[in-house]
Amino acid sequence: MRKVSVVTVSYNSKEQTMLTLDALKKQDYPFIESIIVDGGSDDGTVGVIQNFAKEFHGEVRWVSEKDNGIYNAINKGVRMASGDLIGFCWDLYADIHTISKMVKKVEDEQTDGVHGDLVYIGKDGRVVRYWKMGQGAIQAGWMPAHPTLYLKRSIFEQYGLYDESYHCSGDFEFMVRILKEGNVRLSYIPEVLVRMFYGGVSTSGVRGYWRSIAESYKALRRNRIRFPAGVILLRTIRTAGQFFHRRVP
To answer: Is the pLDDT of residue 149 over 90?
Structure first.
């Protein structure tokens, strides 16, 4: 059985962090390392982390200190991680078996990582958007849902970490970088794995959306993806369709 490192990034988000860590605590997979990178919260988040560290059945490593943005915090978490499989969670797992399913899928198919479907939920818990993309190609506007993407440590060692110059699309750039040549093999689980809180940096209104588009275009050009504007258009069409498909099977 391989160890899974789950990196959680937080900053003055006491209630959300509490929900995330509670969902992690309920996972039935026995070999989990929880890595928590807090940006120096002063709203009680640190107390939530301390209580979680006492109760969690797996390993816990955490730090609370000022960082230089979300991708700096994510990179710090990856460097702290010692697991064979590394992923991120500051949202909610769909059920208590999510990590177990991921590990089994990677081991059964001998791939470099795993991803699945995702739903965005509003403050009232209702589904706002349903990310169901399956497998595909970057050139066709496809991209795995980053909160569901768990990768072997070797992928980070080979391709490097997240580009900290990005404000909201460093995860997109990272995925383009590792997937563009088709050498990283991913398994796909055709079911919702994560319930994501709606309203993050890239989903917070029109301004956030356009910043995300601009940074995504920059990422495609930097990685020499042909016809980046066309890829952005196809991706936008796919994204728009997610708002009309809110019923989870």
So the answer is: yes
Helices 70-80 and 170-179, packing angle to 10 deg:
50
What is the pLDDT at residue 75? 98
Q: What is the mean pLDDT of residues 3-9?
A: 98
Assign residue 245 a region (left: φ > 0; alpha: ψ between -120 and 50; beta: otherwise). beta
Amino acid at 204: S
CA nearest neighbour of 179 among 147, 155, 153, 148: 155
Per the structure block, which two tokens stand in for 128?
A: 């706002």
Give the residue from 184, 165, 150, 120 showing the smallest Cα distance to 27: 150
Spacing of C-alpha 163 from chain mean position: 15
For the entire predicted model, the pTM comes to 0.92
pLDDT in tens, 161-188: 999 999 999 999 999 999 999 999 999 9
pLDDT value at residue 202: 47
CA distances, 161 to each of 137, 171, 208, 221 (Å): 22, 10, 23, 18
Q: Give buried/exposed letters for 63-87 (b at 16+ CB in 10 A, else e).
A: bbeebebbbbbbbbbbebbebbbbb
Strands 85-88 and 127-131: unpaired
Task: Single out the residue of 38, 177, 152 nearest to residue 87, CA to CA.
Answer: 152
CB 161 within 8 A of CB 70: no
Q: Give one word for 111, left, alpha or beta, with left for phi > 0 and alpha for psi -120 to 50.
A: beta
Give, as one character, the DSSP assignment of residue 168.
S
